[in-house]
Specification:
7 strands; 256 residues; disordered N terminus; L-fuculose-1-phosphate Aldolase; 7-stranded antiparallel beta sheet; alpha+beta
Length: 256
């Protein structure tokens, strides 16, 4: 953490006053609880693996799953609220151990409003193999404008001290020449995927699609080890018809 990080509003400077802050925190906790439970319903997590978070940027508050709490026992009040420095705002439980990774991403990617980390089987297999997921078809291109990247392995010193913070820094470095709006996911080498979106609900959807395209790529390569990536023209056509100012797929305000 350094002095260039966002300064947070003081106790009485939250938009709408203290009652507005309380309403925001209540809504944020319920939203993040539902997102975490959606990971279970979608088959993206087992045991206590994985976590979702969301940020209320106008309030300077992040909500995240508590560490090691079984999903079937989680309640809204269990969701932990912190600021962007990781200091506790509200909650009696410890936040997810991955909180520092989430905070790095929220600071680095100002357009995102939610982050999802899973250990879903197929996407995690690619992360463990330290291989990016190639863009082999239009299902992939509808959500990811190119191969899903994988980070380098962390150095021993990065693992020994501030491991989760350094994981986030590794992701940010990997995106030095990538647009996180066009590539809303990453594979952390030897670990698992992180996904993001404008909202935590969108981030959950991205995590679902990442797992699907990871399975499709594995299956495609098993059937034809010589399969070639999609052409840039077809990849971009499918991505840009769903995303960006010229998008025309689906109904107004929706991708369906």
């Amino acid at each position: 953490m350094n002095g260039s990080e966002l300064r947070l509003p003081g106790r009485n400077s939250y938009r709408g006053g203290l009652s507005g802050r309380a309403d925001c925190c209540h809504s944020l906790r319920n939203t993040v609880l539902k997102a975490n439970l959606d990971l279970v319903a979608r088959g993206l997590v087992i045991d206590t693996f994985g976590n979702c978070s969301a940020i209320a940027r106008d309030q300077g508050v992040v909500a995240i799953k508590p560490s090691g709490v079984p999903y079937d026992r989680m309640r809204p009040e269990d969701i932990v609220l912190t600021n962007l420095d990781g200091r506790l705002v509200e909650g009696s439980l410890r936040p997810s151990s991955d909180l520092p990774t989430h905070l790095v991403l929220y600071r680095a990617f100002p357009h995102i409003g939610g982050i999802v980390h899973t250990h879903s089987s197929n996407a995690t297999a690619w992360a463990q193999a330290c291989r990016e997921i190639p863009c082999l078809g239009t299902t992939h291109a509808d959500y990811f404008r190119g191969p899903v990247p994988v980070t380098p392995h962390l150095e021993p010193a990065e693992i020994d001290a501030e491991y989760e913070f350094n994981t986030g820094q590794s992701i940010v470095r990997r995106f030095s020449n990538l647009d996180p709006a066009h590539m809303p996911a990453v594979l952390v080498a030897g670990h698992a995927p992180f996904c993001w979106g404008k909202t935590v609900e969108e981030a959950v959807h991205i995590a679902v699609m990442l797992e699907q395209i990871a399975w499709l790529a594995l299956s495609s390569l098993a059937l034809n080890p010589s399969v070639r990536p999609l052409s840039d023209a077809l990849r971009d056509k499918h991505f840009l018809r769903k995303h960006g100012p010229a998008a025309y797929y689906g109904q107004s305000g929706k991708n369906s």
